[in-house]
Amino acid sequence: MTDPGTTARRMWTLFEPVHVVSYFAPQPRAAFEQAGLRGYWRGYFAGRAAPLGAVAAEPVAAAFFSFAPAMVARALPSVWDLATPAEALRARATGAVAALRGLLGLAEAEDPAAAVVETADLLATAIADIGTPGRVLGAANAALPVPGDPLARLWHAATVL
Known about the structure:
By secondary structure, the protein is an all-alpha fold. Helices cover 68% and strands 0% of the residues.
């Protein structure tokens, strides 16, 4: 039997490269800036916290855990005066899809390969009834609608996982 910790680490190495594009690729930052969230940390905290709604810094600091509460408080709740959670969600999806398109070498209107679509569909099925006890951000993201666009669906599922 495989150790659950080993399985979780393996899963992380597969899904994290898809999810992380929303933090480190230039396209998501540009999308956040277009939504009025100038500066890396505003986009980061708004995009990551948006599934929770227009929350204050305290629950976000608790959910993110690895950031100093004062750092979170510099961004939240003031980011919600610049962009609503719905606008931040749109910006993060737009940016993530643009980043994945770039990484896959896809033109704007070009469809992803069948294997990418199949992976997105399989992961969407995997998260459909996923349990999320103790996983605040996973639960918040799982509660969002599954996107129709295959690259958005792939990113969404990787984010939930």
